[in-house]
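Co-fold these.
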Amino acid sequence: MKIHLDSDRCQGHGRCYSIAPALFTYDDNGQAALIVTDELADEQVGLAQLAANNCPEYAIEVA
Amino acid sequence: MAGNPVVTDWTTDFDHTDKAWAADPYPIMDELRDTCPVAHSDRFGGAWLPTRHEDVSAIANDTEHFTSRSIVVSEHRPPMELAPEGIAPPISSDPPFHAQARRMLLPVFSPQTIDKLEPSTRAYCQELLAALQGKDVVDAAADYAAHIPVRVIANMLGLPEEDGDKFRGFVLHVLEGVALPLEERIVGFQQLFEYLMPQINDRVANPKDDLISFLLASELDGKPLDPFHVVRTVALLLIAGIDTTWSAIGASIWHLAKSPTDLKRLVNEPELMPTAIEELLRAYAPVTMARLVKEDFEFQGCPMKAEDWVLLSFPAANRDPAFFENPDEVILDRSPNRHAAFGLGIHRCAGSHLARMEMRVALEEWVKVYPDFSLEDAGAVRWSGGQVRGPRVLPIQVGP
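Predicted complex below.
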């Protein structure tokens, strides 16, 4: 399982990096960026999914 | 609100400045969603009101059929020539111009910039609360919530803090004066620009470490930003940054005052604050945006005409049962919570990180001083109408 971030859909709401600061960060404009681009550890999957489920723009997918 | 006749049929004659809408719009939204999910009104020269999340989201993301040339519904539509910048860029701008005008502002409101403002915001909240010491009843809107964003945005812009009352006057006029005759509205806008222009001119001559100077030093398309663009953006920040956050803080305190279980939970489990803030934003989203229809166009079977208004009710989207389970219930740890309080699409509120920080700090400091409080007189609470809804009179019993 990996996190897929669609930067075109991301509008910088910042829900992901508030919920999962170990997995997501932000650039100078507040747009989301991935910290973990590799395969997620089992214990990270739930948090990644939580971030995805809170994104108002549906910009995150965990698959 | 002045002027408009009382609404008797919300499906064909809605009016978001109506007293009933200000007092409690949620039952009206629910009924519209069930019976007429895209309502119409001949008021304001023709306007539409979608109440389903799906439709609000579709319109917010459709810049092909809808323009942001004006985002405040009134009898008056700003001249076409104002496009693509609009009256207050970037909120009133359309693509492709919008992206560059917005990109310039985003670093100023990024999480890392906003973090630096937290200590001064907290100190100011403490100062406001200290001044209320000894009172048994305080007005959480007028004595507390209203002051916080005014001070924060004045400091960011480099405008005198003591002009707070003036700023609130401008905001009231622009956002709550939509039913006024055009001549009066123009005078109000003139007063705002007449207030701001000398400040802008002063920064042209003497740049300071503030947002006005930052904007004046910014470039658009490789050219220095025109002072006229700067004054309109500053007007936007002043107006958009004040009564929105004031409303969100006030509505949150109102909810906690009438919901002792939630208040107790938040006091005992302060780690709930981040999800609680999102949930309070969802349930009491203060801001409704608007678009104008570009060309005649059919949306969900509705014959929208060029220059019709469309109200983008994020509050209605946030209460859609097709999108949220038990939407009328406030659940402090609700998850997931893909609420649309800060809008959706390219116009997502640029100040959302600032607003969240102000809300969190204001609530944290409030419950620290008042871990137990209630509505002093529920009937005395007054809500603003129009496109920014929040308590304007909010008497809270904080003492015995």
